[in-house]
Design goal:
mainly beta, globular, about 190 residues
Length: about 190
């Protein structure tokens, strides 16, 4: 599977939706960040997200060996989310609640066209990531709305993502030799 992140905040995933998968599970992919003016890849980023989820969920990315997270509030498959550069994205206050305890209260960037939010801080991503490992429930609160995140149990793809991020944090670029994280040489971002 190949994911494309174009410019600042544009996200696309180029694979077709799964057919008749019985339960939510983690799916590994690659996010590609492009320079739209040059049409060249700026970064390749390992990522993992819940496939076949029936509610809001996170996509974890590993940028320069650090976890980042984008939450899809109404599109848990992260499919066909292709926002244009927008001035409508805005800063909002949000909270992460893990196992009933508020663990983060801070700023997020909300993109209304795609109903996604992201934090520039590492802490919320790490907290939700660790909640997956511990099997804990997580709620994202924005304004007066609560979003119960779909967090499937760990599977091999989730573990491969964690291992890839650990290698990148140590400066080990060998993960790009693994077909899981391959980007075809002739791939170009959708226009």
């Amino acid at each position: 599977m190949l994911t494309t992140l174009m410019g600042l905040g544009a996200l696309a995933i180029s694979a077709d939706a799964p057919v008749n998968l019985p339960a939510a599970s983690w799916d590994a992919t690659v996010v590609v960040i492009y320079d739209l003016t040059e049409g060249e890849i700026m970064h390749k980023v390992p990522a993992v997200f819940p496939r076949n989820a029936d509610g809001p969920g996170p996509m974890f990315q590993c940028l320069e060996g650090r976890y980042r997270m984008t939450l899809a509030l109404d599109r848990p498959e992260f499919r066909n989310i292709i926002p244009k550069r927008t001035r409508r994205a805005r800063r909002v206050s949000g909270q992460i609640i893990v196992a009933g305890e508020k663990t983060f209260d801070g700023a997020f960037i909300f993109a209304p066209e795609t109903q996604t939010v992201a934090s520039r801080e590492r802490k919320p991503a790490a907290q939700v990531f660790n909640a997956v490992i511990r099997g804990q429930d997580v709620v994202f609160r924005m304004r007066r709305d609560n979003y119960d995140l779909v967090l499937p149990p760990m599977n091999n793809e989730f573990k491969e993502f964690a291992a890839a991020c650990a290698k990148l944090a140590d400066g080990d670029e060998s993960i790009w030799d693994d077909p899981t994280w391959a980007v075809p040489d002739d791939y170009r971002p959708p226009r």
